[in-house]
Amino acid sequence: MRRLLSKFGGLAAATMLTLGLAHPAQAADPACFEFTDVTRETAVVRIDDPDRIQHARDLLSGKTRERPHLVGRIVKRTAPYNPRWSFHYDPATVGFFDVAIEVCDATLPYVEDHLDEAGGAFLPGAHWCPWSSMLTREVPAP
Question: Which carries the bigger pLDDT value, residue 45 or residue 99?
Answer without folding.
Answer: 45
